[in-house]
């Protein structure tokens, strides 16, 4: 059962347009949050400001784009950390593609073992960076 306090908080969120504007929603091929729009393109995600009708920046991962927009909406200055984590995801995803290809195509056992170890390290770094970005989105 939902208690009265929780029900009142939920009603405040639904009736207050200030909170509704910050809830992300997908419309077509874009994600809208407040005055910003996130669109996927071939090299990552582009962030546009709908009020000034200009592109603000681009990111490699969707989670970095969401974290940046959430930070801008809440007037937080955590953009350098988000960009650092986005670069970690980008570098290690590209490395992982290379290592995966090496594991699949190589016939040399030592080369396969080395590539598999590096692939595991790259996947772990990707996971850690994505968890930190997710924390920035949620909190």
List the helices and strands and how they pair.
Elements: H1 4-15, H2 17-20, E1 25-27, E2 30-33, E3 36-41, E4 44-49, E5 54-59, H3 62-73, H4 79-105, H5 109-138
Antiparallel strand pairs: 1-2, 2-3, 3-4, 4-5
Helix pairs in contact: 3-4, 3-5, 4-5
Gyration radius, rounded: 20 Å
- Which strand order spans the largest sheet, edge to edge or round the barrel? 1-2-3-4-5
- Summarize the main sheet: 5 strands, antiparallel
- Proportion in helices: 55-70%
SS-based structural class?
Answer: alpha+beta
CA distance, first residue to last residue: 26 Å
Q: What's the helix count? A: 5
Q: Output the helix-strand order.
A: HHEEEEEHHH
Q: What do the pLDDT scores average to?
A: 91
Uncertain residue ranges:
none
- Globally, the shape reads elongated
- What share of the residues does DSSP label as strand, in percent? 15-25%
How would you sum up this structure in a few lines?
By secondary structure, the protein is α+β, with helices and mostly antiparallel strands. Helix content is 61%, strand content 18%.
Question: Which key terms come to mind for this protein?
Answer:
139 residues; five-stranded antiparallel sheet; 5 strands; alpha+beta
Structure in words:
The longest helix is centred in the C-terminal third of the chain and has 30 residues, at 109-138. The protein has one domain. It has helices at 4-15, 17-20, 62-73, 79-105, 109-138, and strands at 25-27, 30-33, 36-41, 44-49, 54-59. By secondary structure, it is an alpha+beta fold. The radius of gyration is 20 Å and the shape is elongated.
């Amino acid at each position: 059962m939902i208690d009265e306090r929780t029900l009142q908080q939920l009603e405040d969120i639904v009736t207050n347009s200030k909170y509704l504007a910050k809830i992300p929603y997908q419309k077509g091929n874009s994600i809208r949050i407040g005055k910003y729009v996130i669109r996927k393109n071939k090299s990552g995600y582009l962030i546009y400001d709908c009020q000034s009708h200009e592109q603000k920046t681009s990111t490699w991962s969707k989670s970095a784009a969401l974290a940046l927009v959430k930070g801008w909406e809440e007037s937080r200055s955590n953009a350098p950390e988000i960009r650092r984590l986005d670069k970690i995801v980008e570098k290690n995803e590209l490395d992982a593609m290379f290592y995966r290809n090496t594991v699949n195509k190589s016939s040399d056992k030592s080369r396969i073992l080395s590539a598999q170890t590096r692939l595991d390290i790259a996947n772990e770094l990707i996971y850690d960076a994505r968890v930190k970005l997710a924390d920035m989105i949620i909190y």
